[in-house]
Amino acid sequence: xxxxxxxxxxxxxxxxxxxxxxxxxxxxxxxxxxxxxxxxxxxxxxxxxxxxxxxxxxxxxxxxxxxxxxxxxxxxxxxxxxxxxxxxxxxxxxxxxxxxxxxxxxxxxxxxxxxxxxxxxxxxxxxxxxxxxxxxx
Length: 137
Description:
The protein is α+β, with helices and mostly antiparallel strands. It has helices spanning 36-58, 94-108, 114-124, and strands at 2-14, 23-31, 61-75, 84-90, 125-134. The protein has a five-stranded antiparallel sheet with strand order 1-3-4-2-5.
């Protein structure tokens, strides 16, 4: 349905081999073309550091990988489009701590607070698909 070349978003690429017992989330994100650079900067300066804080300090999230489309080689007509994919592996309890811990990470890098950060993201991007599953290895 789609073949593309993707690159990791700088400062937003934290892979892990620890997958057991985690919820696996895949987010397909379509950022409006005119806001791609702004979105990338938000990922590099706000969201990436906030997720790194959660990964290393809070430890309920085990993996965060942000990828951006470099080139679309094939896309089936009528199939949803995206230009970013986020892969997340987290403990189920993370859903209860996300907002507070993410905001704490934003504060550490002098970024806008959680509400302002995500309000701006809502204006420039949409999720074309978001799926999650539990994985036991």
